[in-house]
Amino acid sequence: MAVSPHFLRQGIGTKLYEASVAWARERSAASLELNVWEFNERAIAFYKSLGMFTLNRTMTTEI
Length: 63
Hints:
transferase, GNAT_dom, mainly alpha, acyltransferase, 2 helices
């Protein structure tokens, strides 16, 4: 899910999130998960503001 930079701070991300939650609930999902890049602090802050939390972390190395 992404919102064009031109349309940030207009509530679009929140509406997309709410629609995703509604879709999952309608299908009796137990949880909703997403992947976000660690460097994307703005997105992480946004998802935390919606009540999401970090469940696990994937770590990698270049070889």
